């Protein structure tokens, strides 16, 4: 009887171990909602508790230990390695990142605005491609994320090209013209909370920061999805819009970028 009980316990624990350590992590990348649930709601708080640090702090420390200081490409690829092999994070990621790179190079922008900095991954991708004199303004309302982003940007040596503006985009956008002498944005990379995409786009229009030729690049338009924003840019006679299919960062779930050029 005791042997049967012990045997059942060993089989149960082994099965649980296999499910938690192998089957769930293998299945997670195929389902967007599971990616977020597993990584953001289950793993991240557990790691924070076990390690006594936040994920952005662990990312910064990994970057400082494994990347070449002053080399943005090395910092970017090190963050990708961290996110693929250690902990998933909500950067635009390496696959959509290549599309973003291409769109930035095609537009050759002088002034770029980014909505949603997080740890500065996409800021680095964009800023390293700017022409001499080009500037990136990036907005982040979480002070802890903004602090890490500034340190990662400084580690990559791009602090002269990137200005991190701390606060909610809805408050910061109306200040851009006067406070930062911006006439209009050449590119706007939209990657903050998904329900802010449409109201902030309309606010940018009202403030005169979107002009003829301004290119909007919106991330996560398929997953988690931004239906109201897509409906607006795809049906407005003022925009010419194009979808670039890809995958949710560090996963196998479909996602994509929407490029929308303001026609005037
Ligand atoms: C998806 S992450 C940005 C990822 C980043 N663009 C990258 O690819 O590396 C979204 C970020 O936007 C910030 N955020 C969300 N809504 C915001 C708002 N209204 N104003 C400023 N920051 C916001 C969040 O705190 C979060 O850090």
Automatic annotation (TrEMBL):
One of its GO terms (molecular function) is catechol O-methyltransferase activity. Keywords: Catecholamine metabolism, Membrane, Methyltransferase, Neurotransmitter degradation, S-adenosyl-L-methionine, Transferase, Transmembrane, Transmembrane helix. It comes from the Eukaryota. The lineage of its organism: Eukaryota, Metazoa, Chordata, Craniata, Vertebrata. Its EC number is 2.1.1.6. This is catechol O-methyltransferase. It catalyses: a catechol + S-adenosyl-L-methionine = a guaiacol + S-adenosyl-L-homocysteine + H(+). The chain crosses the membrane at residues 6-28. Belongs to the class I-like SAM-binding methyltransferase superfamily. Cation-dependent O-methyltransferase family. GO terms for biological process: catecholamine catabolic process; developmental process; dopamine metabolic process; methylation. InterPro entries: SAM-dependent_MTases_sf (IPR029063), SAM_O-MeTrfase (IPR002935).
